[in-house]
Amino acid sequence: xxxxxxxxxxxxRPWGKLLASSEAALVVGWFAFFTxxxxxxxxxxxxxxxxxGVAFLIVGALVTLRWHQDRPLASIAAMTGRLSQLKPVxxxxxxxxxxxxxxxxxxxxxxxxxxxxxxxxxxxxTGLLLAKSAAFPGVLRSGVGAVSxxxxxxxxxxxxxxxxxxxxxxxxIPLLYVQAALRLSRGAGRAPRRETLWAVGYxxxxxxxxxxxxxxxxLALVGTTWILFALLAxxxxxxxxTSVWNWGRGEGLWSTSWAAVTVCVxxxxxxxxxxxxLVLSGSVVLGGPSSMPISAFFGVLVxxxxxxxxxxxxxxxxxxxxxxxxxxxxxxxxxxVRTMGVPDARRxxxxxxxxxxxxxxxxxxxxxxxCEPRTVWRRDEVExxxxxxxxxxxxxxxxxxxxxxxxxxxxxRREILARRALLHGLRRIFKAASQxxxxxxxxYWVAPHLWFVTHLGRDQEGEPLPQVxxxxxxxCPREARRHFHQVLKxxxxxxxxxxxxxxFRRFKRVLSLAFEYYDIFAGSRPIQxxxxxxxxxxxxxxxxxxxxxxxxxxxxxxxxxxDLGRARILFVFxxxxxxxxxxxxxxxxxxxxQPEPALLL
Length: 601
Prior knowledge:
Blueprint: H1 14-20, H2 24-39, H3 47-70, H4 74-91, E1 95-100, H5 113-131, H6 138-147, H7 149-184, H8 191-212, H9 216-234, E2 242-247, E3 254-257, H10 258-285, H11 293-326, E4 337-340, H12 347-356, E5 361-362, E6 374-377, H13 386-389, E7 394-396, H14 404-434, E8 443-446, E9 457-458, H15 472-475, H16 478-491, E10 495-499, H17 504-521, E11 538-545, E12 565-574
Parallel strand pairs: 1-12, 4-5, 4-6, 6-7, 10-12
Antiparallel strand pairs: 1-2, 2-3, 8-9, 8-10, 11-12
Helix pairs in contact: 2-3, 3-7, 5-10, 6-7, 7-8, 7-11, 9-10, 9-11, 10-11, 14-16, 16-17
Protein backbone atom coordinates (compact mmCIF):
# COMPACT_ATOMS: atom_id res chain seq x y z
CA UNK A 1 0.00 0.00 0.00
CA UNK A 2 1.35 3.46 -0.95
CA UNK A 3 2.01 5.77 2.00
CA UNK A 4 -0.13 8.82 2.25
CA UNK A 5 2.80 11.22 2.63
CA UNK A 6 5.26 9.58 0.25
CA UNK A 7 7.27 11.73 -2.21
CA UNK A 8 5.59 12.15 -5.60
CA UNK A 9 7.39 10.66 -8.58
CA UNK A 10 7.84 14.11 -10.09
CA UNK A 11 10.43 14.94 -7.45
CA UNK A 12 12.37 11.77 -8.28
CA ARG A 13 13.12 12.98 -11.83
CA PRO A 14 16.28 15.06 -12.53
CA TRP A 15 14.40 18.26 -13.28
CA GLY A 16 12.06 17.67 -10.37
CA LYS A 17 14.90 17.48 -7.86
CA LEU A 18 15.43 21.20 -8.36
CA LEU A 19 11.93 21.91 -7.06
CA ALA A 20 12.58 19.81 -3.99
CA SER A 21 15.84 21.64 -3.16
CA SER A 22 16.26 24.88 -1.26
CA GLU A 23 16.70 26.73 -4.56
CA ALA A 24 13.18 26.03 -5.74
CA ALA A 25 11.64 29.21 -4.35
CA LEU A 26 14.43 31.37 -5.78
CA VAL A 27 14.29 29.77 -9.22
CA VAL A 28 10.53 30.10 -9.42
CA GLY A 29 10.67 33.68 -8.15
CA TRP A 30 13.32 34.79 -10.65
CA PHE A 31 11.54 33.02 -13.51
CA ALA A 32 8.26 34.72 -12.64
CA PHE A 33 9.98 38.11 -12.31
CA PHE A 34 11.68 38.00 -15.71
CA THR A 35 8.53 36.60 -17.34
CA UNK A 36 6.50 39.51 -15.96
CA UNK A 37 9.09 41.94 -17.28
CA UNK A 38 8.95 40.50 -20.76
CA UNK A 39 5.13 40.48 -20.86
CA UNK A 40 5.05 44.14 -19.73
CA UNK A 41 7.15 45.27 -22.70
CA UNK A 42 4.21 46.11 -25.06
CA UNK A 43 2.62 48.39 -22.47
CA UNK A 44 3.17 52.12 -22.44
CA UNK A 45 5.81 52.62 -19.80
CA UNK A 46 7.44 55.50 -17.93
CA UNK A 47 10.65 55.60 -15.97
CA UNK A 48 8.62 55.16 -12.79
CA UNK A 49 7.71 51.67 -13.97
CA UNK A 50 11.35 51.07 -14.85
CA UNK A 51 12.41 52.11 -11.36
CA UNK A 52 10.00 49.58 -9.82
CA GLY A 53 11.58 46.81 -11.90
CA VAL A 54 15.08 48.00 -11.00
CA ALA A 55 14.18 48.09 -7.30
CA PHE A 56 12.81 44.52 -7.40
CA LEU A 57 15.88 43.37 -9.32
CA ILE A 58 18.35 44.90 -6.82
CA VAL A 59 16.39 43.67 -3.78
CA GLY A 60 16.12 40.20 -5.29
CA ALA A 61 19.85 40.10 -5.99
CA LEU A 62 20.64 41.14 -2.41
CA VAL A 63 18.24 38.52 -0.98
CA THR A 64 19.78 35.85 -3.19
CA LEU A 65 23.30 36.72 -2.11
CA ARG A 66 22.26 36.77 1.55
CA TRP A 67 20.60 33.37 1.12
CA HIS A 68 23.76 32.08 -0.54
CA GLN A 69 25.86 33.18 2.45
CA ASP A 70 23.68 31.20 4.88
CA ARG A 71 23.03 28.16 2.67
CA PRO A 72 25.28 27.92 -0.41
CA LEU A 73 23.30 27.58 -3.61
CA ALA A 74 24.57 25.12 -6.20
CA SER A 75 23.93 27.38 -9.19
CA ILE A 76 25.74 30.39 -7.70
CA ALA A 77 28.58 28.19 -6.45
CA ALA A 78 29.02 26.77 -9.95
CA MET A 79 28.95 30.27 -11.45
CA THR A 80 31.53 31.62 -9.00
CA GLY A 81 33.68 28.55 -9.61
CA ARG A 82 33.73 29.26 -13.33
CA LEU A 83 34.57 32.91 -12.69
CA SER A 84 37.35 31.98 -10.27
CA GLN A 85 38.93 29.94 -13.03
CA LEU A 86 39.14 33.09 -15.14
CA LYS A 87 40.81 35.10 -12.37
CA PRO A 88 44.32 33.62 -12.85
CA VAL A 89 44.02 34.09 -16.61
CA UNK A 90 43.01 37.74 -16.28
CA UNK A 91 45.57 38.31 -13.53
CA UNK A 92 48.38 37.35 -15.89
CA UNK A 93 47.56 40.43 -17.98
CA UNK A 94 47.24 42.80 -15.06
CA UNK A 95 49.83 45.58 -14.94
CA UNK A 96 51.62 46.32 -11.66
CA UNK A 97 53.24 49.72 -11.17
CA UNK A 98 55.87 51.08 -8.81
CA UNK A 99 58.64 53.65 -8.50
CA UNK A 100 62.16 53.01 -9.75
CA UNK A 101 64.31 54.45 -6.95
CA UNK A 102 67.52 52.72 -8.02
CA UNK A 103 67.63 53.55 -11.76
CA UNK A 104 70.72 51.34 -12.12
CA UNK A 105 71.02 49.09 -13.99
CA UNK A 106 68.78 50.81 -16.49
CA UNK A 107 65.64 48.92 -17.50
CA UNK A 108 64.32 48.76 -21.07
CA UNK A 109 61.82 51.52 -21.83
CA UNK A 110 58.31 50.44 -22.75
CA UNK A 111 54.88 51.96 -22.25
CA UNK A 112 52.17 49.57 -20.92
CA UNK A 113 50.08 48.48 -23.92
CA UNK A 114 46.99 47.89 -21.77
CA UNK A 115 46.82 51.59 -20.89
CA UNK A 116 47.12 52.51 -24.56
CA UNK A 117 44.31 50.12 -25.55
CA UNK A 118 42.07 51.20 -22.67
CA UNK A 119 42.50 54.92 -23.36
CA UNK A 120 42.02 54.37 -27.08
CA UNK A 121 38.80 52.42 -26.49
CA UNK A 122 37.47 55.04 -24.08
CA UNK A 123 38.36 57.81 -26.53
CA UNK A 124 36.48 56.06 -29.35
CA UNK A 125 33.45 55.28 -27.16
CA THR A 126 33.25 58.80 -25.76
CA GLY A 127 33.47 60.24 -29.28
CA LEU A 128 30.52 58.11 -30.41
CA LEU A 129 28.53 59.15 -27.34
CA LEU A 130 29.25 62.82 -28.04
CA ALA A 131 28.00 62.41 -31.60
CA LYS A 132 24.73 60.83 -30.36
CA SER A 133 24.48 62.64 -27.01
CA ALA A 134 21.09 64.18 -27.82
CA ALA A 135 19.56 60.69 -28.12
CA PHE A 136 20.59 59.47 -24.68
CA PRO A 137 19.29 58.07 -22.40
CA GLY A 138 16.04 57.55 -24.35
CA VAL A 139 17.83 55.41 -26.93
CA LEU A 140 18.42 52.79 -24.25
CA ARG A 141 14.68 52.27 -23.84
CA SER A 142 13.91 52.34 -27.54
CA GLY A 143 16.91 50.19 -28.47
CA VAL A 144 17.69 47.72 -25.70
CA GLY A 145 14.15 47.74 -24.29
CA ALA A 146 12.71 46.79 -27.64
CA VAL A 147 14.86 43.66 -27.73
CA SER A 148 14.46 42.51 -24.12
CA UNK A 149 12.86 44.24 -21.18
CA UNK A 150 14.84 42.09 -18.75
CA UNK A 151 18.12 43.09 -20.35
CA UNK A 152 17.09 46.76 -20.30
CA UNK A 153 16.15 46.57 -16.60
CA UNK A 154 19.45 44.89 -15.74
CA UNK A 155 21.38 47.54 -17.70
CA UNK A 156 19.48 50.32 -15.96
CA UNK A 157 20.17 48.75 -12.56
CA UNK A 158 23.90 48.59 -13.32
CA UNK A 159 24.00 52.23 -14.52
CA UNK A 160 22.05 53.60 -11.56
CA UNK A 161 24.07 51.56 -9.04
CA UNK A 162 27.35 52.69 -10.61
CA UNK A 163 26.19 56.31 -10.61
CA UNK A 164 25.15 56.13 -6.95
CA UNK A 165 28.43 54.47 -5.95
CA UNK A 166 30.55 57.00 -7.87
CA UNK A 167 28.53 59.91 -6.49
CA UNK A 168 28.88 58.84 -2.85
CA UNK A 169 32.61 58.08 -3.16
CA UNK A 170 33.37 61.31 -5.00
CA UNK A 171 31.41 63.33 -2.46
CA UNK A 172 33.57 61.95 0.35
CA ILE A 173 36.99 62.53 -1.27
CA PRO A 174 37.16 66.34 -0.74
CA LEU A 175 35.86 65.88 2.80
CA LEU A 176 38.70 63.47 3.55
CA TYR A 177 41.24 66.11 2.51
CA VAL A 178 39.47 68.65 4.73
CA GLN A 179 39.38 66.16 7.61
CA ALA A 180 43.13 65.51 7.35
CA ALA A 181 43.86 69.25 7.25
CA LEU A 182 41.62 69.99 10.24
CA ARG A 183 43.15 67.25 12.37
CA LEU A 184 46.65 68.57 11.70
CA SER A 185 45.70 72.17 12.42
CA ARG A 186 45.26 73.78 15.78
CA GLY A 187 42.11 73.17 17.70
CA ALA A 188 41.93 69.49 16.87
CA GLY A 189 39.44 69.00 19.68
CA ARG A 190 36.82 70.90 17.70
CA ALA A 191 37.65 69.00 14.48
CA PRO A 192 34.51 66.77 14.42
CA ARG A 193 32.22 69.78 14.66
CA ARG A 194 34.10 71.64 11.93
CA GLU A 195 34.07 68.53 9.74
CA THR A 196 30.27 68.41 9.99
CA LEU A 197 30.00 72.09 9.06
CA TRP A 198 32.30 71.54 6.09
CA ALA A 199 30.24 68.54 4.92
CA VAL A 200 26.95 70.47 5.14
CA GLY A 201 28.43 73.52 3.41
CA TYR A 202 29.94 71.40 0.63
CA UNK A 203 26.62 69.62 0.06
CA UNK A 204 24.73 72.89 -0.15
CA UNK A 205 27.33 74.34 -2.56
CA UNK A 206 27.02 71.33 -4.87
CA UNK A 207 23.22 71.46 -4.76
CA UNK A 208 23.17 75.18 -5.54
CA UNK A 209 25.64 74.74 -8.41
CA UNK A 210 23.61 71.86 -9.87
CA UNK A 211 20.47 74.01 -9.88
CA UNK A 212 22.00 77.27 -11.08
CA UNK A 213 24.59 76.10 -13.64
CA UNK A 214 24.15 74.05 -16.84
CA UNK A 215 25.32 70.44 -16.92
CA UNK A 216 28.09 71.10 -19.42
CA UNK A 217 29.85 73.34 -16.87
CA UNK A 218 31.27 70.52 -14.64
CA LEU A 219 32.37 68.64 -17.76
CA ALA A 220 34.24 71.72 -19.01
CA LEU A 221 35.69 72.28 -15.51
CA VAL A 222 37.06 68.72 -15.36
CA GLY A 223 38.52 68.99 -18.87
CA THR A 224 40.22 72.31 -18.12
CA THR A 225 41.61 71.01 -14.83
CA TRP A 226 43.05 67.96 -16.57
CA ILE A 227 44.74 70.10 -19.25
CA LEU A 228 46.40 72.29 -16.59
CA PHE A 229 47.53 69.22 -14.66
CA ALA A 230 48.94 67.63 -17.82
CA LEU A 231 50.92 70.79 -18.59
CA LEU A 232 52.32 70.89 -15.06
CA ALA A 233 53.18 67.17 -15.01
CA UNK A 234 54.59 66.75 -18.50
CA UNK A 235 56.08 69.99 -19.87
CA UNK A 236 58.57 71.46 -19.59
CA UNK A 237 61.09 69.37 -17.63
CA UNK A 238 58.87 67.38 -15.25
CA UNK A 239 60.34 66.32 -11.88
CA UNK A 240 62.63 63.34 -12.26
CA UNK A 241 60.74 60.15 -11.45
CA THR A 242 60.69 56.82 -13.28
CA SER A 243 57.96 54.21 -13.03
CA VAL A 244 58.69 50.51 -13.18
CA TRP A 245 56.04 47.98 -14.23
CA ASN A 246 55.52 44.36 -15.15
CA TRP A 247 52.71 41.95 -15.92
CA GLY A 248 50.82 40.14 -13.19
CA ARG A 249 52.41 36.88 -14.28
CA GLY A 250 55.74 38.29 -13.11
CA GLU A 251 57.60 38.05 -16.41
CA GLY A 252 59.84 40.93 -17.44
CA LEU A 253 60.43 44.34 -15.94
CA TRP A 254 60.20 47.62 -17.86
CA SER A 255 60.42 51.31 -17.07
CA THR A 256 58.54 54.32 -18.34
CA SER A 257 57.92 57.94 -17.50
CA TRP A 258 55.82 58.50 -14.40
CA ALA A 259 54.40 61.70 -15.88
CA ALA A 260 53.24 59.91 -19.04
CA VAL A 261 51.51 57.14 -17.08
CA THR A 262 49.83 59.61 -14.71
CA VAL A 263 48.55 61.82 -17.53
CA CYS A 264 47.20 58.83 -19.51
CA VAL A 265 45.47 57.34 -16.48
CA UNK A 266 43.87 60.70 -15.73
CA UNK A 267 42.63 61.08 -19.28
CA UNK A 268 41.14 57.57 -19.11
CA UNK A 269 39.29 58.45 -15.89
CA UNK A 270 38.01 61.71 -17.40
CA UNK A 271 36.79 59.93 -20.55
CA UNK A 272 34.98 57.28 -18.49
CA UNK A 273 33.36 60.05 -16.42
CA UNK A 274 32.17 61.94 -19.51
CA UNK A 275 30.83 58.72 -21.03
CA UNK A 276 28.84 57.83 -17.91
CA UNK A 277 27.32 61.32 -17.71
CA LEU A 278 26.37 61.23 -21.41
CA VAL A 279 24.73 57.81 -21.11
CA LEU A 280 22.68 58.89 -18.08
CA SER A 281 21.67 62.40 -19.18
CA GLY A 282 22.96 63.09 -22.67
CA SER A 283 20.17 65.39 -23.81
CA VAL A 284 20.36 67.46 -20.60
CA VAL A 285 24.04 68.24 -21.24
CA LEU A 286 23.04 70.29 -24.31
CA GLY A 287 20.22 72.01 -22.42
CA GLY A 288 17.39 69.89 -23.83
CA PRO A 289 14.59 68.06 -22.00
CA SER A 290 14.85 64.47 -20.85
CA SER A 291 12.21 61.74 -21.03
CA MET A 292 13.97 59.84 -18.22
CA PRO A 293 14.25 62.20 -15.22
CA ILE A 294 15.64 59.59 -12.81
CA SER A 295 18.56 58.78 -15.11
CA ALA A 296 19.11 62.50 -15.66
CA PHE A 297 19.23 63.03 -11.88
CA PHE A 298 21.91 60.35 -11.51
CA GLY A 299 23.84 61.99 -14.35
CA VAL A 300 23.77 65.35 -12.58
CA LEU A 301 24.85 63.64 -9.33
CA VAL A 302 27.87 62.04 -11.01
CA UNK A 303 28.77 65.20 -12.95
CA UNK A 304 29.02 67.54 -9.96
CA UNK A 305 30.39 65.17 -7.30
CA UNK A 306 33.11 63.90 -9.63
CA UNK A 307 34.01 67.46 -10.61
CA UNK A 308 34.54 68.39 -6.96
CA UNK A 309 36.55 65.24 -6.23
CA UNK A 310 38.68 65.60 -9.36
CA UNK A 311 39.38 69.24 -8.58
CA UNK A 312 40.42 68.41 -4.98
CA UNK A 313 42.59 65.48 -6.08
CA UNK A 314 44.24 67.48 -8.86
CA UNK A 315 44.97 70.38 -6.53
CA UNK A 316 46.60 68.00 -4.07
CA UNK A 317 48.73 66.32 -6.76
CA UNK A 318 49.42 69.68 -8.42
CA UNK A 319 50.80 71.04 -5.14
CA UNK A 320 53.14 68.05 -4.84
CA UNK A 321 54.21 68.46 -8.47
CA UNK A 322 54.82 72.17 -7.97
CA UNK A 323 56.99 71.51 -4.95
CA UNK A 324 58.79 68.73 -6.81
CA UNK A 325 59.48 70.99 -9.78
CA UNK A 326 60.73 74.01 -7.84
CA UNK A 327 61.62 72.65 -4.37
CA UNK A 328 63.13 69.25 -5.21
CA UNK A 329 65.86 68.56 -2.62
CA UNK A 330 67.91 66.65 -5.20
CA UNK A 331 68.18 69.58 -7.61
CA UNK A 332 68.52 72.21 -4.88
CA UNK A 333 71.71 74.20 -4.59
CA UNK A 334 74.05 73.78 -1.65
CA UNK A 335 73.66 76.26 1.18
CA UNK A 336 75.96 79.29 0.85
CA VAL A 337 78.46 80.50 3.41
CA ARG A 338 77.21 83.61 5.19
CA THR A 339 79.97 86.18 5.62
CA MET A 340 79.85 89.32 7.75
CA GLY A 341 82.07 92.36 8.00
CA VAL A 342 83.71 92.03 4.57
CA PRO A 343 84.72 95.46 3.20
CA ASP A 344 83.14 96.45 -0.07
CA ALA A 345 86.53 96.59 -1.75
CA ARG A 346 87.20 92.96 -0.77
CA ARG A 347 83.86 91.40 -1.73
CA UNK A 348 84.81 90.48 -5.31
CA UNK A 349 88.04 88.91 -4.08
CA UNK A 350 86.21 86.91 -1.40
CA UNK A 351 83.50 85.78 -3.80
CA UNK A 352 86.06 84.61 -6.39
CA UNK A 353 88.01 82.65 -3.76
CA UNK A 354 84.90 80.92 -2.45
CA UNK A 355 83.67 80.01 -5.93
CA UNK A 356 87.07 78.61 -6.82
CA UNK A 357 86.76 76.32 -3.79
CA UNK A 358 83.30 75.16 -4.88
CA UNK A 359 81.39 77.23 -2.35
CA UNK A 360 78.93 80.06 -2.75
CA UNK A 361 78.98 83.09 -0.50
CA UNK A 362 76.17 85.29 0.79
CA UNK A 363 76.82 88.70 2.27
CA UNK A 364 74.60 90.16 5.05
CA UNK A 365 70.99 90.65 4.07
CA UNK A 366 67.90 88.56 4.51
CA UNK A 367 67.19 85.77 6.97
CA UNK A 368 70.02 83.39 7.75
CA UNK A 369 69.42 79.74 6.95
CA UNK A 370 69.79 76.85 9.41
CA CYS A 371 72.44 75.15 7.26
CA GLU A 372 74.61 78.16 6.45
CA PRO A 373 78.09 78.33 8.02
CA ARG A 374 78.87 81.80 9.37
CA THR A 375 82.17 83.57 8.97
CA VAL A 376 83.48 87.00 10.02
CA TRP A 377 86.10 89.03 8.22
CA ARG A 378 89.10 89.71 10.45
CA ARG A 379 89.67 93.46 10.60
CA ASP A 380 93.30 93.37 11.75
CA GLU A 381 96.18 91.41 10.29
CA VAL A 382 97.05 89.67 13.53
CA GLU A 383 97.16 85.89 13.15
CA UNK A 384 94.07 84.14 14.49
CA UNK A 385 94.68 82.16 17.74
CA UNK A 386 94.17 78.41 17.68
CA UNK A 387 91.02 78.62 19.84
CA UNK A 388 89.43 81.16 17.50
CA UNK A 389 90.06 78.87 14.53
CA UNK A 390 87.73 76.26 16.02
CA UNK A 391 84.94 78.64 17.10
CA UNK A 392 81.99 79.82 15.07
CA UNK A 393 81.46 82.25 13.45
CA UNK A 394 84.92 81.53 12.00
CA UNK A 395 87.24 84.45 11.48
CA UNK A 396 89.13 84.68 8.21
CA UNK A 397 91.33 87.06 6.31
CA UNK A 398 93.48 87.18 3.17
CA UNK A 399 95.65 84.32 4.44
CA UNK A 400 92.68 81.94 4.84
CA UNK A 401 91.47 82.62 1.30
CA UNK A 402 94.52 80.72 0.04
CA UNK A 403 94.28 77.93 2.62
CA UNK A 404 92.48 74.71 1.42
CA UNK A 405 91.94 73.57 5.01
CA UNK A 406 89.82 76.66 5.68
CA UNK A 407 87.39 75.80 2.88
CA UNK A 408 87.42 72.13 3.83
CA UNK A 409 86.32 73.15 7.32
CA UNK A 410 83.49 75.24 5.86
CA UNK A 411 82.22 72.32 3.82
CA UNK A 412 82.38 70.09 6.89
CA ARG A 413 80.56 72.69 8.96
CA ARG A 414 77.80 72.84 6.36
CA GLU A 415 77.34 69.07 6.53
CA ILE A 416 77.15 69.15 10.33
CA LEU A 417 74.55 71.92 10.29
CA ALA A 418 72.51 70.02 7.68
CA ARG A 419 72.52 66.88 9.83
CA ARG A 420 71.53 68.79 12.93
CA ALA A 421 68.63 70.42 11.08
CA LEU A 422 67.55 67.06 9.66
CA LEU A 423 67.53 65.32 13.04
CA HIS A 424 65.75 68.25 14.65
CA GLY A 425 63.02 68.12 12.01
CA LEU A 426 62.67 64.33 12.23
CA ARG A 427 62.39 64.61 16.02
CA ARG A 428 59.47 67.01 15.58
CA ILE A 429 57.79 64.67 13.10
CA PHE A 430 58.16 61.55 15.24
CA LYS A 431 56.97 63.40 18.33
CA ALA A 432 53.79 64.36 16.48
CA ALA A 433 53.47 60.81 15.13
CA SER A 434 53.64 59.32 18.63
CA GLN A 435 50.63 61.41 19.65
CA UNK A 436 48.46 60.19 16.77
CA UNK A 437 46.42 57.03 16.64
CA UNK A 438 47.94 54.19 14.61
CA UNK A 439 45.47 52.26 12.48
CA UNK A 440 47.04 49.16 10.96
CA UNK A 441 50.55 48.61 9.73
CA UNK A 442 53.79 47.70 11.46
CA UNK A 443 55.80 50.91 11.17
CA TYR A 444 56.68 54.01 9.17
CA TRP A 445 58.32 54.70 5.83
CA VAL A 446 60.92 57.45 6.27
CA ALA A 447 61.80 59.34 3.08
CA PRO A 448 62.48 63.07 3.57
CA HIS A 449 64.86 62.98 0.57
CA LEU A 450 62.17 62.17 -2.02
CA TRP A 451 60.18 65.05 -3.51
CA PHE A 452 56.99 63.02 -4.06
CA VAL A 453 56.84 61.88 -0.40
CA THR A 454 55.43 64.79 1.59
CA HIS A 455 54.83 63.24 5.02
CA LEU A 456 55.87 60.37 7.22
CA GLY A 457 53.67 57.46 6.13
CA ARG A 458 52.47 54.15 7.50
CA ASP A 459 53.33 50.98 5.61
CA GLN A 460 49.65 50.00 5.59
CA GLU A 461 47.37 52.99 5.82
CA GLY A 462 44.18 52.64 7.81
CA GLU A 463 42.81 55.87 6.29
CA PRO A 464 42.66 56.84 2.62
CA LEU A 465 44.57 60.10 3.19
CA PRO A 466 46.98 59.68 6.12
CA GLN A 467 49.27 62.58 7.04
CA VAL A 468 51.50 61.79 9.99
CA UNK A 469 52.94 64.86 11.65
CA UNK A 470 54.13 68.00 9.87
CA UNK A 471 55.40 67.74 6.30
CA UNK A 472 59.05 67.18 5.51
CA UNK A 473 59.20 70.53 3.73
CA UNK A 474 58.12 72.42 6.85
CA UNK A 475 60.11 70.42 9.38
CA CYS A 476 63.41 69.95 7.51
CA PRO A 477 65.24 72.61 5.48
CA ARG A 478 65.83 71.91 1.82
CA GLU A 479 69.60 71.81 2.30
CA ALA A 480 69.23 69.15 5.02
CA ARG A 481 67.07 66.99 2.75
CA ARG A 482 69.51 67.49 -0.13
CA HIS A 483 72.44 66.35 2.00
CA PHE A 484 70.45 63.37 3.28
CA HIS A 485 69.70 62.35 -0.31
CA GLN A 486 73.40 62.59 -1.12
CA VAL A 487 74.32 60.40 1.87
CA LEU A 488 71.71 57.71 1.17
CA LYS A 489 72.49 57.65 -2.54
CA UNK A 490 76.18 57.07 -1.90
CA UNK A 491 75.40 54.36 0.68
CA UNK A 492 73.02 52.57 -1.68
CA UNK A 493 69.89 53.13 0.45
CA UNK A 494 66.67 54.21 -1.25
CA UNK A 495 64.12 53.95 1.56
CA UNK A 496 64.01 53.45 5.33
CA UNK A 497 61.44 51.40 7.24
CA UNK A 498 61.15 51.96 11.01
CA UNK A 499 59.16 49.50 13.11
CA UNK A 500 56.74 50.66 15.77
CA UNK A 501 58.09 50.83 19.32
CA UNK A 502 61.57 52.14 18.41
CA UNK A 503 62.45 55.40 20.10
CA PHE A 504 63.86 58.27 18.12
CA ARG A 505 67.04 58.13 20.21
CA ARG A 506 67.82 54.64 18.89
CA PHE A 507 66.86 55.58 15.36
CA LYS A 508 69.24 58.55 15.62
CA ARG A 509 72.00 56.10 16.49
CA VAL A 510 71.34 54.22 13.24
CA LEU A 511 71.55 57.45 11.28
CA SER A 512 74.79 58.33 13.10
CA LEU A 513 76.35 55.06 11.95
CA ALA A 514 75.25 55.79 8.39
CA PHE A 515 76.76 59.29 8.52
CA GLU A 516 79.99 57.93 10.00
CA TYR A 517 80.31 55.30 7.27
CA TYR A 518 79.70 57.99 4.65
CA ASP A 519 82.45 60.17 6.13
CA ILE A 520 84.95 57.30 6.20
CA PHE A 521 84.53 56.06 2.65
CA ALA A 522 83.23 59.28 1.05
CA GLY A 523 80.58 57.39 -0.89
CA SER A 524 83.03 54.98 -2.54
CA ARG A 525 81.21 51.81 -1.45
CA PRO A 526 77.64 50.92 -0.37
CA ILE A 527 76.89 50.13 3.23
CA GLN A 528 76.04 46.59 4.37
CA UNK A 529 74.03 45.05 7.20
CA UNK A 530 77.11 44.21 9.23
CA UNK A 531 78.02 47.87 9.55
CA UNK A 532 74.90 48.45 11.70
CA UNK A 533 75.69 45.74 14.23
CA UNK A 534 76.19 46.72 17.81
CA UNK A 535 73.17 48.99 18.29
CA UNK A 536 71.50 47.70 21.50
CA UNK A 537 67.90 46.59 21.13
CA UNK A 538 67.81 46.96 17.33
CA UNK A 539 68.19 44.68 14.36
CA UNK A 540 69.05 46.52 11.15
CA UNK A 541 68.68 44.71 7.82
CA UNK A 542 69.28 45.72 4.20
CA UNK A 543 67.37 44.04 1.41
CA UNK A 544 66.59 44.53 -2.26
CA UNK A 545 63.02 44.79 -3.51
CA UNK A 546 61.58 44.72 -6.99
CA UNK A 547 58.19 43.94 -8.50
CA UNK A 548 59.54 40.58 -9.62
CA UNK A 549 60.36 39.39 -6.10
CA UNK A 550 59.89 40.97 -2.68
CA UNK A 551 62.03 40.14 0.39
CA UNK A 552 60.81 37.67 2.94
CA UNK A 553 61.86 38.63 6.45
CA UNK A 554 62.00 35.69 8.85
CA UNK A 555 60.58 36.37 12.34
CA UNK A 556 60.10 40.06 11.52
CA UNK A 557 56.93 41.87 10.42
CA UNK A 558 56.63 42.11 6.65
CA UNK A 559 55.75 45.67 5.57
CA UNK A 560 53.26 46.42 2.84
CA UNK A 561 55.18 46.63 -0.47
CA UNK A 562 52.22 47.57 -2.66
CA ASP A 563 53.24 50.00 -5.42
CA LEU A 564 56.77 50.28 -4.05
CA GLY A 565 58.80 49.42 -7.15
CA ARG A 566 62.54 48.82 -7.30
CA ALA A 567 64.46 49.91 -4.20
CA ARG A 568 67.10 48.94 -1.63
CA ILE A 569 65.41 49.24 1.76
CA LEU A 570 66.96 49.74 5.19
CA PHE A 571 64.80 47.93 7.77
CA VAL A 572 65.11 48.98 11.42
CA PHE A 573 63.44 46.40 13.69
CA UNK A 574 63.28 45.72 17.37
CA UNK A 575 65.73 42.94 18.16
CA UNK A 576 63.86 39.70 18.85
CA UNK A 577 66.94 37.84 20.10
CA UNK A 578 67.00 35.06 17.53
CA UNK A 579 70.22 33.33 16.57
CA UNK A 580 72.14 35.09 13.84
CA UNK A 581 73.72 33.35 10.89
CA UNK A 582 77.51 32.93 11.05
CA UNK A 583 79.43 35.50 9.03
CA UNK A 584 82.47 34.41 7.06
CA UNK A 585 85.52 36.47 8.02
CA UNK A 586 87.44 37.76 4.99
CA UNK A 587 91.06 36.74 4.50
CA UNK A 588 92.50 40.24 4.51
CA UNK A 589 91.64 43.45 6.29
CA UNK A 590 92.35 47.01 5.21
CA UNK A 591 93.39 49.33 8.00
CA UNK A 592 91.98 52.80 7.56
CA UNK A 593 91.81 55.71 10.01
CA GLN A 594 88.64 56.02 12.05
CA PRO A 595 87.56 59.66 12.44
CA GLU A 596 85.37 61.05 15.15
CA PRO A 597 81.59 60.44 14.83
CA ALA A 598 80.13 62.58 12.09
CA LEU A 599 77.13 63.67 14.12
CA LEU A 600 77.82 66.65 16.37
CA LEU A 601 75.06 67.70 18.72
